[in-house]
């Protein structure tokens, strides 16, 4: 069973104490922006899995063994914030995690977020991506991934949390307002 933190007040207390934080959720939900802000406010090293782990220049996917080695290196540190879902690496990350923040926004909100991001960055390099990965308009496959994320991927996320981090507290944020309110309650300006 996932150890859920029910109140934002309790979540804020956990957030203030955490030294190793995973932020997970569907693409387009605002994880990366939230992570940059949170890492700065908590003075934690911020690691983007898209930027540092998954992608090589020109959208070439890094080999899985290399991905796992990089993740292992990141989580061996005493302090970090790691932005990225990928439940296939929860076995490496969760045992070293103090707190999981699950950005679990409605799919329409994630789709809107992806389109806003594309409108801002299409043809440019986005700060959360590896060098040489120029932003492009979202294709049908990526939009389908977002549309079906909750149904297809949430059961695996829950299963992997239960298996590899049953004692790791999980904060679930369902709206951007909750993200901002959590920072307020933690005493962190945003």
- The percentage helix is 40-55%
| Text of the CATH class | Alpha Beta
Tell me the span between the first and last alpha carbons: 32 Å
- Number of separate structural domains: 1
- Return the structural class: alpha/beta
Largest sheet at a glance? 6 strands, parallel
CATH topology: Rossmann fold
Question: Which range does the strand content fall in?
Answer: 15-25%
Residue runs with pLDDT of under 50 for 5 or more positions:
none
CATH homologous group name: P-loop containing nucleotide triphosphate hydrolases
CATH architecture: 3-Layer(aba) Sandwich
The shape, in one word, is globular
* Total number of helices: 8
How do the strands and helices of this protein lay out in sequence?
Layout: E1 3-5, H1 8-17, E2 20-25, H2 31-42, E3 46-48, H3 49-54, E4 55-56, E5 60-61, H4 64-75, E6 80-83, H5 90-93, E7 99-103, H6 107-121, H7 140-164, E8 169-173, H8 176-185
Parallel strand pairs: 1-8, 2-6, 2-7, 3-6, 7-8
Antiparallel strand pairs: 4-5
Helix pairs in contact: 1-8, 6-7
Please outline what is shown here.
It contains eight helices and eight strands, in the order E-H-E-H-E-H-E-E-H-E-H-E-H-H-E-H.
Folded structure, characterized:
This protein has eight helices and eight strands, in the order βαβαβαββαβαβααβα. With 190 residues, the chain is of the alpha/beta class. The protein has one domain (3-185): P-loop containing nucleotide triphosphate hydrolases (Rossmann fold), CATH 3.40.50.300. The model has no long low-confidence stretch (mean pLDDT 92).
């Amino acid at each position: 069973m996932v150890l859920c933190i029910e109140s934002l007040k309790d979540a804020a207390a956990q957030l203030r104490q955490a030294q190793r934080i995973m932020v997970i959720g569907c693409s387009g939900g605002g994880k990366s922006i939230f992570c940059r802000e949170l890492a700065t406010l908590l003075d934690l090293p911020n690691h983007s899995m898209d930027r540092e782990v998954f992608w090589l220049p020109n959208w070439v996917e890094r080999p899985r063994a290399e991905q796992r080695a990089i993740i292992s290196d990141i989580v061996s540190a005493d302090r970090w914030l790691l932005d990225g879902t990928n439940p296939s690496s929860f076995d490496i990350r969760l045992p070293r995690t103090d707190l999981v923040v699950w950005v679990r926004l409605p799919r329409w909100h994630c789709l809107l977020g992806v389109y806003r991001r594309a409108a801002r960055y299409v043809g440019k390099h986005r700060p959360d991506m590896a060098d040489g990965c120029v932003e492009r308009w979202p294709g049908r496959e990526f939009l389908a991934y977002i549309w079906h994320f909750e149904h297809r991927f949430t059961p695996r996320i829950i299963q992997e949390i239960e298996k590899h981090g049953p004692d790791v507290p999980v904060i679930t944020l369902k709206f951007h307002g909750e993200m901002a309110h959590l920072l307020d309650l933690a005493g962190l300006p945003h």
